[in-house]
Amino acid sequence: MRRDVFQAIADPTRREIINLIAFQSLNLNAIAENFDMSRPAISQHIKILTECGLISIKKEGRERFCEVKFQKLKEISKWIEQYSSFWNNKLDALEIYLSANKTKVEPKK
Fold first, then answer.
1. Sign of the dihedral through C-alpha 21, 35, 76, 3
2. pLDDT tens digits along 38-58
3. Predicted TM-score (pTM) of this structure
């Protein structure tokens, strides 16, 4: 089954893995040490993130290091942005409405 980036980030463990390796690449053992689950379970999460293109694995000697592929996160950002614009417009309209009606409604003391 082909997964997409939205399925990958739906899981909190996978989001935390992305957070861990966002600023430095880590090997699989270093990632696994941050979680209270088995190494095979972490490997499965890494596999899903790799399949979705959110991380890449670089081999250095016997070690495998995981790195975030930030360009793939842009897909998520673009999707969120459309809703961000929508809600910003709605909140701006609400602010204008409340400002216009502020003098009509005064709080009771």
1. positive
2. 999 999 999 999 999 999 999
3. 0.75
